Amino acid sequence: AQRVTQPEKLLSVFKGAPVELKCNYSYSGSPELFWYVQYSRQRLQLLLRHISRESIKGFTADLNKGETSFHLKKPFAQEEDSAMYYCALSRTGGFKTIFGAGTRLFVKA
Amino acid sequence: GAGVSQTPSNKVTEKGKYVELRCDPISGHTALYWYRQSLGQGPEFLIYFQGTGAADDSGLPNDRFFAVRPEGSVSTLKIQRTERGDSAVYLCASSPRETQYNEQFFGPGTRLTVL
């Protein structure tokens, strides 16, 4: 069965420190992975997607098929990065999207 | 332009009642999704539309839940004989083309409370 696991409900770091939000997935086929973010009082929005190999707002994520992980990383956290982050998965060529439970990132001044 | 809109923003109903939740996608978006988000959880997939047809309704929890998109634009999620366990935020999202690689644009959600 498809499953996305985000082991940390809350992650608190100091401004300027590196941050890594963990995401592990379970899927038998070839998945597409995404990170979505929800800032306070805003809508859920796409942050980045595996297929694009992009860096958005300093965040990157590498798909590791051997470890079935798609961890989100940023070398220097900023206060404005404080938000709820969701890892998501869909089947290649498919549209049903499975979300993890989310990790709340809190960046302290 | 305007983003995805959902009405009502809040709905309080009594157990056993029928409710309809509406989603207005971004104009021209052909793909539309419904999700349910319970407290402390991520969005849970319910149904996906390509145009007017439901391409994947595997996430609907039971036959009390039904969704339509008759003209390929506005969609309505219908819940019959509501139960307290249906209380959640119901999210709608749309995408511009019929490919998963396009990002999903989310609405603000409808908070449903079943008393």
Salient structural properties:
heterodimer; A: 109 residues; mainly beta; 6-stranded mixed beta sheet; 0% helix; B: 115 residues; 48% strand; globular
Description of the molecule:
The complex is a heterodimer of chains A (109) and B (115). Chain A is an all-beta fold. Chain A has no helices and eleven strands. The model of chain A has no long low-confidence stretch (mean pLDDT 92). Chain A has strands at residues 3-5, 10-14, 19-21, 24-26, 31-38, 45-49, 60-61, 72-74, 83-91, 97-99, 103-108. In chain A, the strands form three sheets. In chain A, strands 2, 5, 6, 9, 10 and 11 form a six-stranded mixed beta sheet that branches. Chain B contains no helices and eleven strands. In chain B, the strands form two sheets. In chain B, strands 2, 4, 5, 6, 9, 10 and 11 form a seven-stranded mixed beta sheet that branches. The model of chain B has no long low-confidence stretch (mean pLDDT 93). Helices cover 0% and strands 48% of the residues of chain B. By secondary structure, chain B is an all-beta fold. The radius of gyration of chain B is 13 Å and the shape is globular. Classes of the chains: A mainly beta (109), B mainly beta (115).
Order of helices and strands of chain A: EEEEEEEEEEE
How is the quaternary structure best described?
A: heterodimer
Q: Count of helices of chain A?
A: 0
The succession of helices and strands of chain B, N to C, reads EEEEEEEEEEE
β-strand number of chain A: 11
- Rg calc of chain A: 13 Å
Helical fraction of chain A equals: under 10%
The chain pair forming the largest interface, with residue counts per chain, is: A-B, 24 and 27 residues
User: Beta-strand percentage of chain B?
Assistant: over 45%
Q: Please outline the major beta sheet of chain B.
A: 7 strands, mixed
Number of strands of chain B: 11
Taking all Cα atoms into account, the compactness measure Rg of chain B is 13 Å
Judging from the principal axes of the Cα atoms, what is the shape of chain B? globular
Strand content of chain A: over 45%
